[in-house]
Specification:
The structure is a homodimer.
Chain A lengths: L2 E6 L7 H16 L3 E6 L5 H12 L5 H25 L4 E4 L1 H4 L1 E3 L8 E4 L2 H8 L3 E5 L2 E3 L5 E3 L4 H13 L3 E6 L20 E3 H9 L7 H9 L4 E5 L7 E4 L12 E5 L2 E10 L4 H11 L4 E6 L6 E9 L3 H15 L3 E5 L2 E7 L9 H11 L6 E5 L2 E7 L3 H11 L9
Parallel strand pairs in A: 1-2, 1-9, 2-6, 3-6, 9-11, 10-12
Antiparallel strand pairs in A: 4-5, 7-8, 11-12, 13-18, 14-16, 14-17, 15-16, 18-20, 19-20
Helix pairs in contact in A: 1-3, 2-3, 6-8, 7-8, 9-10, 11-12
Amino acid sequence: MALIVQKYGGTSVGSVERIQAVAKKVAATRDNGHKVVVVVSAMSGETNRLIALANDISEFPNPREMDVLLSTGEQVTIALLSIALHKLGCPACSYTGGQVRILTDNVHGKARILDIDDHSVNGDLAAGKVVVVAGFQGVDEHGNITTLGRGGSDTTAVAMAAALKANECQIFTDVDGVYTTDPRVEPRARKLDKITFEEMLEMASLGSKVLQIRSVEFAGKYNVPLRVLSSFEEGEGTLITFEEENMEDAKISGIAFSRDEAKLTIRGVPDQPGVAFSILGPVAGANIEVDMIVQNIGKDETTDFTFTVHRNDYHKALELLKESAEVLGAREVFGTKNIVKLSLVGVGMRSHAGIASTMFEALAKEGINIQVISTSEIKISVVVDEKYLELGVRALHDAFGLAGELNS
Amino acid sequence: MALIVQKYGGTSVGSVERIQAVAKKVAATRDNGHKVVVVVSAMSGETNRLIALANDISEFPNPREMDVLLSTGEQVTIALLSIALHKLGCPACSYTGGQVRILTDNVHGKARILDIDDHSVNGDLAAGKVVVVAGFQGVDEHGNITTLGRGGSDTTAVAMAAALKANECQIFTDVDGVYTTDPRVEPRARKLDKITFEEMLEMASLGSKVLQIRSVEFAGKYNVPLRVLSSFEEGEGTLITFEEENMEDAKISGIAFSRDEAKLTIRGVPDQPGVAFSILGPVAGANIEVDMIVQNIGKDETTDFTFTVHRNDYHKALELLKESAEVLGAREVFGTKNIVKLSLVGVGMRSHAGIASTMFEALAKEGINIQVISTSEIKISVVVDEKYLELGVRALHDAFGLAGELNS
């Protein structure tokens, strides 16, 4: 008998019929002898409906009251799912965030979980009941309702799993797992049976939006095995877990990419301490997030400096960079939005030489020029012209033998 | 400076615009130097929407989960009203039943309030905030969400007023006060400035459905002056309070009536101890509520026995009565649904002789035959043929000088 936390998102509980389908899945898991805690989101559309009501009254609604308002969305779902479980003869008990006592800080709208009281939930589990918990919400130390921000139900599920020392946290979503790359770009993309937390973090931050990145961090930190699977299809999904011996075989888990970046370069700045800060300080000061940062070794006592930002921030960043260039007496400033970032991700690359050269070779064979390179322990990213996105992804997918059967 | 509890029902908060109008009323009360606690219902239609969702899943939804579901209705309203108050620059803080801690028993769907923790609410009032409380809901001692049953927001308001020792509990509704009788029957019906709790109870139980009878009992028990007034029109409404010296002048406060009754008679039963129980026992056993009960003094060692029940229970009651008649060897059983009950209500009748004779004279003048008479300390009820309803109400209204100006 295992203790399993299952999380169903808004689309999975988007109608009475879907809630009934979820109830069947949950009851089946319990019938298989497991203890089950279910975390649910608001029915799809409900949160937007509530936000619209508030915005009809005020452009900037009071944050505390917004949390009171929005938390009703999940409360409706926990009640309806519990009613559906009872209807199936499956004993169930619903909990709001405050009833569990999911204690958070008091940052309304994006609160962080501080502690979870497992007492009542464990009591109901021991009594053979399915426990249905409202995702996305908690209470602060004074009993004020807080929300974790949109998508926070994943975080609730992982936190519940951690607090209860669950054997597995299953995130049901509208995809059936994590793929080697986006199947819309490479139809032969293969579903991964397993992936490590670190790889998943790199995949998520690079654009594979299957899971909230925060919940993956959380799961890794608290040693909660995480499984992504489909609400609508049968299947084992993808298990996100710790590095194991046999994972060494797979050097590369997947190819991630991002179309959202723009590249800026400042050329001929003095090669001396403090110059990186002079360049990036004003950018950070304008709340622009910088992704890749590359500085080549200099010559003639000057150096070149390249970084990437979100495309939406490109023009603002370019302006700031021109100002810095004047102060620093730089030779030139230029940039482009017509780039994409391709990334190889895999824990295997730690212990395998030659990954990078295989990557560069594969791109060169297709005539793809690499503009910037950046590496981390389990990731190699390159910036290329955006026209090479599909070609590059497929070339790398092939080069590292990731392809499965052609998806129908 | 007074402490005022205001309650707004579902129609009064039925749209964003109406919630904004309520916010203005509340803010104005605070601007006049009062401390204000507002109790609100769910937006009209919302409770029915939620019930429909649950019934789509189960014909008999789990009662605990129904309370979790339905309590979201008021929670949405408290958040929206608080947002509207903030928008007007009026500091406000919302409370669910559980957050106030309105402690109830655990009878889901019709819980009774056991205790109210006034600590947090008093703190916010002292800080100059308007406190917005979700009506109709509480928590049991284990923190399970309970509801007081439909219309229970009135009870919440009165209970809050009692706990906080408020100077007045104002119930805002879609009528502008309590009238001497139903203005649809007697256009010259007059709004009462004051009425006693006892009179209000008799009026309410006889069909003047302005207030939940339970909240009136509650207000009387805890000495909370209650005021009924309109959400949509200006005016002082009707104050429901304790008997005062000058109330003696008004012998009669109003004429109530009920169209919902049916009358049954059993004739020629043995005039001996236990016979009333033999007749009414089976009726009560079938969960049929009996309203008026009249037994005339007998002759020839037999007596006649008449009682009234709700029209919906008439056929069942008649069957039971026929069975009793056989057992008791009664001479005859008969009844009719074509009756109405007219009632004079007024604390003044305690100390004034002649009220009954004035009543009977007024009805006789119009040729209205009285079928049954029943009296209590502050009420005289008669049963007449239903065709005399309007004629009888107007005759009594005139006879006791209740008429005001003709309502436009």
